[in-house]
């Protein structure tokens, strides 16, 4: 019995030792956690995670890729798609976007096919029209994904325009306080968030990898789809290259954006003036007339013999 007790005690001690060693290994900080605090001057970059590969992707992946190639041959315009993907802030490639278009088309095709099957069960003569509807649904799904990309571009550009005056003023304040363009950009990027801040973080990363400040802002002006931001980036590049006072340039840029926003708001209100009159004419005015004349009409009915 004493031998069995010693053996069980040794096994228990070994198990506890393995657990303790494993817990210490799990709780030990990673190499990135230990090294990054000593690299404070480098921009923080989110780690790229590889998307998980599912069984469906493995089975239907070749079919989707073939469909994406067919859509690319039919539609073309890969340069326009690549430009819009860049303006939308997406890291997808043109081929990935074509695969998404095929997926949207197949989803629309499945819905139309289900409706056509139910319709064909009730009326067998509608099989041809149902097939035509399915093909049209596939085309509509493919084009809807392209339209969705354009909508994402417009939404992102509106966010950039809304963020621009504040970030330009912050840069002007930092530069006016005596900081250089790179330090001012770093301060603004660390204390802000948004689409334009992400673009400025990309510019900062390019500057810290050895690209000149003017060239980095020229690249920002080239890849952005917002004319105001393009003029802002070009103005900073010219100011850095020629030694123009940068704070004055930034203040002027922010003032121009605010003035452009006011003009756009006035133009939008002017365009929607007729639309704003629709509820007044067709809802408020009839109710007002009804409240004004109905008591008189009722009184006439009561007094008339």
Number of helices: 12
Q: What's the count of strands?
A: 0
Which CATH architecture of the largest domain? Up-down Bundle
Give me the CATH fold name of the largest domain.
Receptor-associated Protein
SSE arrangement, N to C: HHHHHHHHHHHH
Largest sheet: none
Structural class: mainly alpha
The backbone outline, from C-alpha atoms, is extended
Low-confidence stretches: 41-56
Mean pLDDT: 78
Give the fraction of residues assigned to helices.
Answer: over 70%
- Classify the beta-strand content into a percent band: under 5%
Structure keywords:
single chain, 305 residues, mainly alpha, Receptor-associated Protein, 3 domains, 12 helices, 82% helix, T2SS_GspF_dom
Write the layout of secondary structure elements.
Blueprint: H1 2-27, H2 31-35, H3 55-75, H4 78-87, H5 94-122, H6 127-176, H7 181-190, H8 195-208, H9 213-223, H10 227-242, H11 246-271, H12 273-303
